[in-house]
Amino acid sequence: MSATYLTTFQLKHPPFTKEIEDSELWVPPSKQSVVADAMQAIDAHESVLLTGEQGVGKTCITRLLRHRLPQAGFRLTYCHNATLGRRDFYRQLCVALGLSPAATAAAVFYAVSTHVEELGRERVHPVFLLDESHLLRQDTLEHLHILLNYEWDSRALLSLVLVGLPELQTRLELRTNRSLYSRLTCRLSIGAAQPDDTAEYIRYRLARAGCENEILTSDAVAMLHEAAAGSLRDIDRIATAALRMAAKRKKKLVERDTLAAVLHAEVEE
C-alpha cells in the first residue's frame, strides 16, 4: 500500500516520516525563537528547561540544537531513560560519557563530576540533555542541582537541558525542587502548531518528497489541523493515512471527504 500511494502522488519517499536529517527539520517561525533562545543560553553556559505537550515539536527542537551546537568547544550527551533511580541514572550517564560506571552512587557521581571538571580544563563545555524529564524519579530530580555545583558554585562548567511535558515545570516549582529550578535560568515552553504552521509544514514535507503540487485541499488541511490539535506527530500520522486512503480510492487529490473517512476509521478502531 505504501508503494501505491507514493506512485499515485509521484513521491520519492514517504513525506511524513521521522526519518529525516537534522539539517532538514522544519520549525515554524513561531518556534524558531525557542531554538535561538536555547542556543544563546547554552552558549552562555546556562541551563535550560524546555516543556510542551506531546507531539508539539520538542524532539524536533532538541535535534536542531544537536545539529547547531558547535563541535568545537561543546560536547552534547543525550539521555532518554529518565525512570531510573539516582545511582542507575548516573551509571547510565557514565556509559553515555564513555566512562566505566562504578558500583556505588557516590562513586558514579564522582566519576561524572570529575569528567566535567576535566572537560573544563580542556575548554570544552559539556551539555547534558535529559529527555522525558517529567519521568525523573524524585531522588534524582532533587540531586541534579548538585551536579551543577563546581568550585563552591562559582563556575558554570556544565549545562543541563531538561525536556519534558508541562508537568515537569509543575514539579520543579515545588519547594523541594527549588534549588534545581533556580538554576534553570532559561525556561522555554512550546505550544501547538497554528493553522498556518500546519499548512506550511505539509507543503514543506511534500516538497521535500518531490511533490510541488497542492495535493491536499485547503479545507482538508483545516480539518487535519483541527483533528491533530496542532500536534506535528499527529499531523504526520493523519496525513499519511489520508494519502493512503486517497490512493486506495484512486484519487489524485486529498479532499475533505477522504480526511473525514480517515478520522471516522480512527474512531471506530
Notes on the protein architecture:
The chain is of the alpha/beta class and 269 residues long. The chain has 13 helices and five strands. It has a five-stranded parallel beta sheet with strand order 2-3-4-1-5, sandwiched between helices.
Name the overall outline.
elongated
Provide the gyration radius in Å. Answer: 22 Å
CATH superfamily of the largest domain: P-loop containing nucleotide triphosphate hydrolases
Beta strand count: 5
CATH topology name of the largest domain: Rossmann fold
CATH level 1 name of the largest domain = Alpha Beta
Strand order of the largest sheet: 2-3-4-1-5
Low-confidence stretches: none
Cα separation of the termini: 19 Å
Describe the secondary structure blueprint for this structure.
Elements (H helix, E strand, L loop, with lengths): L1 H7 L20 H15 L4 E5 L5 H11 L5 E6 L6 H12 L7 H17 L3 E6 L7 H4 L2 H4 L11 E6 L2 H6 L5 H4 L4 E5 L4 H14 L9 H11 L3 H17 L7 H13 L1
Parallel strand pairs: 1-4, 1-5, 2-3, 3-4
Helix pairs in contact: 1-12, 2-3, 4-5, 10-11, 11-12, 11-13, 12-13
